[in-house]
Specification:
This protein has 321 residues and is α/β, with parallel strands linked by helices. It has helices at residues 3-25, 35-45, 68-76, 92-100, 135-152, 157-183, 200-205, 224-237, 251-262, 288-302, and strands at residues 28-32, 49-53, 79-82, 105-107, 191-196, 209-214, 241-242, 268-269. The strands form three sheets. Strands 2-1-3-4 form a four-stranded parallel β-sheet, with helices on both faces. Strands 5-6 form a two-stranded parallel ribbon. It has a two-stranded parallel sheet with strand order 7-8. Helix 2 packs across helix 5 and helix 8 packs across helix 9. Bound molecules: zinc ion. The site of zinc ion (ZN) has 6 residues, from loops.
């Protein structure tokens, strides 16, 4: 072997051993804030990205403050996916800092057309950020995620488009299921009372009146007056159930149950809904589709509607309790 072929062999060996490592490092590092956004990113990315979420089960995004290690994760990520519309109210500064370094920080809910957003008067002219509550609106977030991943990794654009199309079909099926089971709730019981105003988009999409004890952000305190008003509503309309949320304290919801009982009307605690956070990782309820399925199935059954205990895909376990 001459020096030249020895050199060639060495180069080949180097290439050979380096190849798997470089293929590995090509996977996009995608960091999302909420589990809902991360779940969409996983569906779109498939094997092409490593997707993680900053906020886990039961975490309230309105109040979440980034830790030092969160900042480090934001800095390391190739793409940062944020819900936006001020859902992550305490993280704006962190997002600005990360964006100023040139990294894409994409607010997926911004893709929802303005005329389709709800702007509650008590939210000081800001749009309601809880757009994931209506699967038909969440499709806009899906498009935003697809475009963000394609921009960061153009080679994968075709894969991302294909995966997004498949997920869009699932969301449409979920929307049809939600429409069907929520339509079966009798007229007088079509009122959803929850711990905070996270369900406006669900209410609008499926014609259910929604009343939250706290406002659109959990930052505001519930007033005694709003508790009294809601108790009066429950008694007057004979509403059968109220719903706590997994990411908000159930103290206020409990106060409603007690208030109604004191006035001779029994209100059931309808089971905890997933409002601003999904269920445990690795479970069906720990996915976006499972979370919405759980919510609409639980709401329908507790308010006298007709929904299968196993839900949309027969996979629900929590709703059967
Ligand atoms: Zn919320």
């Amino acid at each position: 072997m001459n020096r030249y072929s020895a050199f060639l062999l060495a180069m080949l060996t180097l290439l050979w051993t380096a190849a798997p490592a470089s293929a590995q490092s090509k996977r996009l590092n995608v960091l999302a804030t909420t589990g809902m956004v991360a779940d969409v990113a996983r569906a779109v990315a498939g094997e092409r990205a490593e997707v993680s979420a900053l906020m886990g089960e039961g975490v309230d995004p309105h109040l979440y403050k980034p830790t030092r290690s969160d900042i480090a994760r934001l800095t390391r990520a190739d793409v940062v996916l944020v819900n936006g519309l001020h859902l992550e109210g305490k993280m704006d500064e962190a997002f600005q800092r990360v964006a100023s370094s040139g990294k894409p920080v994409v607010r997926v809910a911004d893709r929802v057309p303005r005329e389709q957003r709800i702007t509650p008067p008590q939210f000081e002219g800001n749009d309601d950020p809880h757009v994931w509550m209506a699967p038909a609106l969440w499709i806009h977030a899906l498009d935003s995620v697809r475009d963000a991943l394609s921009a960061a990794d153009p080679t994968g654009a075709e894969t991302y488009a294909r995966n997004a199309d498949a997920y869009r079909k699932e969301l449409a099926e979920l929307d049809a299921y939600a429409r069907r089971v929520l339509a079966s709730i009798p007229g007088n019981a079509r009122v959803l009372v929850t711990a905070h105003d996270a369900f406006n988009y669900l209410g609008r999409a499926y014609s259910i009146e929604v009343r939250g004890i706290q406002g659109v952000s959990t930052e505001s305190e519930a007033g005694l007056k709003s508790i009294e008003e809601l108790v009066a509503l429950l008694v007057e309309r004979k509403i059968p159930a109220v719903f706590p949320e997994t990411s908000v304290s159930d103290r206020n919801v409990q106060a409603l149950v007690e208030g109604a009982a004191a006035r001779g009307h029994t209100v059931a605690l309808g089971g905890a809904l997933f409002s601003d956070a999904m269920g445990a990782p690795g479970t069906y309820e720990g996915t976006y589709i499972g979370m919405i399925d759980h919510n609409v199935t639980l709401i329908s059954r507790a308010l006298g509607g007709d929904a299968p205990a196993g839900g949309f895909r027969g996979k629900l376990t929590l709703a059967q309790r």
